[in-house]
Design brief:
Number of helices: 8
Strand content: under 5%
Largest sheet: none
Helix content: 55-70%
Shape: globular
Radius of gyration: 17 Å
Length: 192
């Protein structure tokens, strides 16, 4: 499909975007904790995809390449926001704690007009989301890519641009911290 788009078949762009939009939006949402920001980051990811499609290596998995772009877009968002006061509640109904961490009290409805929700409606998912937002970004990235996107540690290392031992360490340390956070929240291992 990528090769055909490069050859000028632009009508294939919409199906390509439709195929990956939910995954990219979900990743951006887990990174930012804000629905509108996640939409903006997802849109910017696909704009950059279009701009750099010629540099996509055919030997590399397209989704991994796209997630690398999304990761950089989210990082760019935080860099641009540093030094400025970033509004914590961009959307109606979002709640944040005293440290500015998203509490998970709002789950977005999402989809490209299809009314699908990217997450289940279970309260457990909201609690898990709240706990994830308490992790450092680099550990949260590793956990989201591993558990929610299904990537292997080697692929996570490639997406995030770190060495394999670093990716393993981030995942392990993040899981240890997350387990402690879950215990603080009163979640039992069977709940997650």
């Amino acid at each position: 499909m990528i090769r055909q788009i490069r050859q000028g078949r632009t009508e294939l762009l919409d199906p390509l975007i439709d195929r990956y939009y939910q995954d990219i939006f979900r990743f951006c949402y887990y990174r930012t904790g804000q629905e509108q920001t996640a939409y903006d980051c997802a849109q910017e990811t696909f704009l950059r995809m279009l701009r750099f499609l010629g540099s996509c290596e055919e030997t590399r998995r397209f989704k991994s390449w796209l997630l690398s772009i999304a990761l950089n877009v989210c990082r760019d968002y935080y860099r641009a926001a540093s030094g400025k006061e970033v509004p914590l509640a961009e959307e109606k109904g979002e709640e944040y704690d005293a440290d500015g961490c998203f509490t998970g009290q709002y789950m977005p409805e999402s989809g490209r007009g299809n009314g699908e929700k990217p997450y289940g409606q279970a309260e457990d998912r909201q609690v898990i989301r709240q706990c994830l937002m308490r992790l450092p970004e680099f550990q949260r990235e590793a956990i989201v890519l591993y558990f929610y996107s299904g990537y292997k540690v080697r692929e996570i290392a490639g997406i995030t641009g770190v060495a394999l031992p670093t990716a393993k360490s981030r995942l392990r340390q993040g899981m240890e911290k997350l387990k402690k956070i879950f215990e603080e929240e009163g979640l039992h291992e069977a709940d997650w």
